[in-house]
Amino acid sequence: MIKKVIHQQVDQWMDKRLASESDILLTQQRLFILPSMQGVFFLLIQILLLLIAINYQNNLVYALCFFLFSLFISAIFFTFFNLNGLRLVLEESSSPFAGQTAFVRFAIEKQPKAQHHHILCHFKGESQVVFDLLESNQHRIALPMTTDKRGWLSLPELTIKSTFPLGLVTCWSRLRFKQNLLIYPTPLDMDQRQLKTSGRDDEGEGQQMGDEHFKGFKAFEEGEALSRIYWKGVAKGQPMLSKEYSDGQSKEAWIDWDALPYEPFERRISQLTGLANYYHQSGQVYGCRLPGITLPPSNTDAHYHKILTALALL
Amino acid sequence: MISMKPKVPQPDSTSVLNDAVDQVSQVLLGKETSIKLAFCCLLAKGHLLIEDMPGMGKTTLAHALAQSLGIKFNRVQFTSDMLPADILGTNIFDQAKSTFRFHPGPIFTHLLLADEINRANPKTQSALLEAMAEKQVSIEGKTWQLMSPFFVIATQNPLSQIGTFPLPESQLDRFLMRLSLGYPSDLAERQLLQSLHTNQPDLAAVISDEQLLGYQSCLADVHASESLLDYVQALLANTRNHKDLAYGLSPRGAQALMMAARAWCFLAGRDYLIPEDIQAVAASVFVHRLSLAAESIEAAEQIVEQLLASTPV
Amino acid sequence: MMRRAAHHYQIPRTTFLWLVAVLVFLMLPHAVRFSLVIVPLLVICIVWRWLIFKQKVGHPSFLLRAALVVFGFAAVYLLPFEWVSLETAVAILLVGTLLKLLEMRHMRDLLVMSKLCYFVIVAQLLFDQSMLSAVYMLIGIALATASLVSLNLRQKGLGVVYPAKLASKMMLLSVPIMALGFLLFPRLEPFWRVPLPEKKSTTGISDTMTPGSIGELIQSNALVFRATFKDKVTDTSEFYWRGPVLSYFDGQTWHGGDDVISSVLTGGKIDSPVNSLAYDVIMEASYTDWLFPLETYVSSHERLHFASDYSLKARSPINKKRRFSFVSNDQVLLDLSLPDKLKSHYLELPKRGNPKAREFAEQLRRASNDEASLISHANAFFQSEPFVYTLKPPVYSTDRVDRFLFDGQAGFCEHYASSYVFLMRAAGVPARIITGYQGGEVNPYEGYVAVRQKDAHAWVEVWLSGKGWIRIDPTSFVAPHRVRLGIMEGERYDQLQTGNWQPRERWFGQETLEAIAHRYDQLGYIWSNVVVGFDAKDQWALITGLLGLTTWLQKALWLIAAFVGCFLVIYFSLVGLPRRNPLPLHEKLYVKCIKKLQKQGVEKPVGVGPRDFLILATEKLPDKKEALDNFIQAYIRLTYQPENTHADSLQLMKQWLKRM
Asked: Judged by CB atoms within 8 Å, which residues 559-578 of C form the interface with B?
């Protein structure tokens, strides 16, 4: 019980201390420093050396012992300055599909002239990225993060740490970001034929013709509307041709929520996501009709992402 | 004869220049800043690019400028079928002497107004820009020096207009400044509407070309203090670190900035630069150089504004 | 959270090079000491390691490693050391370290290795505290630290220079805290007994004298002790550093007469007679308990074994450098009366042997009426006969005294001393041999007297009733230059007399070299005094004497201040010193003005220059127009105009700032 309370207290305190904007300067307020396992060993060795020095009354062993201690103190400073002054900027990251590994992008900037070696960075429970900042003042990293559900995913706690140069002390900082990353739904490949055809097909063709552009002629086929026949040509003794109009409307694809009435909710979303991917890759113009949202057809990237966002947040 | 180069701008020289500015201002109403900048460009021995929609007074400005300076003035209206020879000149066969004689083109003048430069094809554009940079023309192996002072005012329509060839990005640097006149203010527009004459009145020549050369050499005497250079360097560093700019201002651009600022300072009758001089000319010097990196002129203008606001003085 | 080191961890090339370099470097001094163990293992391990590195062979199998371990321990066992001794422990440590080199596969092994290095260093420091050893080990520490840096580098392409540079920087910054710890950490008494380094095989004066034993010593230049005197010493020829007294002769060897000599523990307050000489002797580790005071020892601060033959011993063998304070007085007469038992001891000779010498002694006795004339007759014999002083005498096998006195007549101090004592005893005068050192070299820079093994000497004391023991140096009759010039020069003098001598010119640079040698010796002296010999007493003297700290509060404050100072040194060396040239005054005033106006509601945007700010401020505060105008115009003059226009602008700024 008490443990729990203490845990909560610590957590609250950490939350306060670690709460981070998207642009963070690492300073002594955020950096923690403690001996690493190596460092503890190192200190134990010094105690051993001190015993040797005392028992042998050997001043040079004393000196060595104090020297190692002093080196340890120096290491604290050096390790601290290996992280101090770094600036982490959360950059815009592309949304992954749920189940994929998300790569959250950060730009890490240093002060000119400073050098930073061997920095480890990872999200809680995820694999880490190791990098140096030596010549260029900026380095971009993409931290992996596993995703499972669509929708907004709050970024896990980020740990950045370093033990350079001697590995005796660990300097680290934990950052908790308020930002969320949007995860797109898992796409599911789907059979095109499953789709219920667009309801607009029922409407008369004649209505559409008026506002369409003339595109060209083609050979007349049985069953085409007579109004489309190029009568002037027929009168001149030419073969029967029918006028063709560029009818974007009827070839337009739609991502239609109602097209899949019988699928379970999540599966429906996944299938529609798969469809959006298909359309986007084939460069087709397509629109989107979802409960509450209708997006006019387009084939731009922005449009694609708008649809996926809508699907993710449904 | 000992040249009487004034060490500091004499009150008369400033007033003479300001008279010229006033005179031009009467023709082009409510555009005093742009006119001053144009004069700066002239003083700093740079070329000027005016970019705006048709009918905004680009040509009027160029004309008035030339007239009030009383220097030799040529105007070339650029078209897409124009050839380099139409501007630079060509060798003509003299039948009487049966030799080739060089017939100088319109570029052999003090002030060249290159109207709608972006209508010309790239070859012609390039010929002009090269001549501007080198102050000389080479035709069939022979080199002809251009006149001094030599000053080009080029006007161009916005690039989105149909039938234009945008100036190559690398060549834009040849212009010291780029100005955009914009719509006149309400007051100025009303005055414009009230006035009856549509034709430009003739202006008296206020400055001679020798005077102009003298003023130009005066710019070197304008004092730039360490503090000011600190400020300029901070500004330059900011252009280079700005997150929306792929690259910052080049050293040549920096030199151009200083020259323009000196001219502005001279025009104001001071013999020392203050940060306000830099700020006054920064936009016109920066914009066409930074727009290489920024998406559009407007975006570049905004960025320059930001840069000036964020660089501490 | 820590990711496990990958299984196929490939030790980076530079790191590997660093570690091997460090190990070889640190092992070298040990290799001299434990050559049997270290050399073969070192070669095997490094060659194997190299082959692994080149991917010619794999890591050694368990069997092979086991074999190497067995070999290592067998070799340690074969070493001529006791089983429970420091030497054995160190040898085992070294074997372990070397085998670890072969085993290095993971990051963890590397880390263990880097820590083991420090123990190898300690081991060397336990055996040898000389300056040379310390400097060598300092380089070793630097290498070890650099290898640690190299281990922690991600960018392996930075080569070997970068880690070395960084390590040097860190070490340099670590010096202040180390010095502080060294000076201020209380020197505690040992917690428990530890095995000390065993006796080295180096020679020194001992309580026996076999033929040639001193001759061997004389070849050695090793330092025995240094003595420091209150007054400056120039001539050391009369310095006889008295060591073991040899009184029992078996025909071959002289021994100390332990069974008849009693000893007492003396010490405490100095009971100093007039004209006593007080001096300090810093003994090098001799692994014996013999001490060598000047004639004649009077007293000491410490409690020491003082024998009835006036020889002096420490209470325990001198296993490391130690300092003694002695008082001597050459006026003191020894043993005015001698008990019969002792008298007969000092007259004892082997029953048989050396008949000629005995006969000659008998002649001398008959020729002289008292002991004094007997001695002078004996001295005259040594002076008149063509005796030769040489370090390479012929070998005298049987009846050595006879052969020397009447056939060979060539030898050095031990021959002269032993034959002299033989003659005296045969003639009925109690006599004994004193071994020790004679002379010594004065260091011109530090003023101490350095006594080396080459100064080893043997002389004679005879007992005259009513006068006590009197020192006679028979060598000086034959080769006075030996006493005057010291052994090396003395030998050259001999060559001169025998005609072998080649005039030796002082070669070019000899003086410089000698000066360097003296300087080096001086450094060693300072080192052993200040660093190696720094003890609780010195510490106390430093704290209370030099710094004048008496109360605990003072000490605590000083300690804290010193540590903070050390931290600041490190901090600022990393951050860089704060800007030396702060804002000039007019800039400061301008900043003040901006702050003042801010309080009055006029904010200065970052990018606004002074002139525009003036306009902006006057608009908002029209009543302060004059002050603003004057102030900012003055500021503009100071900041942007050429210097000749500045004049009293600063004054103006100050004036007008007040009115805002």
From this structure: none
